Please model this.
Amino acid sequence: MLQSMSTIQDVAKKAGVSVATVSRVINNSPSVTEATYKKVMQAIEELDYKPNLLGRNLRRTETRMILVLLPTISNPFYSKIVKGIEKVARENGYNILLCNTDSKIDIERDYLKLLKNRLSEGAIFMAPVIERDELSELSRKYPIVQCCEYKEEAHVSYVTIDNFSAAYKAVQYLIGLGHKRIGMISCKNNYISTIQRKEGYKKALEDGGLVFSEDLIKFGNYGFKSGIRAAKQFLSKKDNVPTAVFTISDSMAIGAIRCFKENGLKVPEDISVIGFDDITYASMYDPMLTTVSQPQVELGCEAMELLLAQIRGDINEPKSIFLDYELIIRESTGVCKI
Model:
């Protein structure tokens, strides 16, 4: 038969003290005498009493839990960012709760109830779905940080890279290799990174004296299979195939390369491909992928440090932090031979 769990009242009775005194001992109150402390601790040990830490933390409005809201856990880009968040969190006595929102506003709001009900002390958004005003209102009451994606006009701190200049640099590199017909694989969403990468792509073409055409932009969903589908669209008009393609995610870039190779094109001899993010697989694929490397672990670390500063009350106004990116030249890009 299972033994019933001891309660704080049982401890108080055995030690001959009040429940309030037991509570003070558990919470390391300096007002408790040495003799009382020993008496209560002996009773706790004999009764094998386990304090309700959740209730204790809630009374202190301290759960040591951080929400990390991300659109999908299947995107490998997020894994290193989460690793950075968790590293800093655990170093400071916090745990994280991963919240997969599927970019659905009702799911995001459900998770945010944990924050509003004080079951979490703060939240890091990878790609917030709620509107700017709602996000700003939330940040006035709770510690919140945006990481990577952010609502530009929201009154909320964020950590990211300069996506415009990163895309510009990638496309400029392709132009420097002699490519004049450069396609792009993007996504149909309202993420700030998507918008800025397209603008960087367009500006690089303009500065390189090349004509921008919407026909040269195909769309995916960041995933490998969608990269294959987008590449097929490029190949559907044989006289209209680009000599290089800039993609906004490595997984789509790898999918595109797979499609090009299966259709008899050599990469980079016939067509060059650049990815974005520098996920682990980028350097494992054949050919190894040229890509824009984001400092993923550092993004997570900075986001968590920024959130901790808010929790401690060290900062009251939103901060914008831009980390460095790097164009990593590998095997998937080469000189245009047409």
The longest strand covers residues 65-70. The chain has a mean pLDDT of 92.
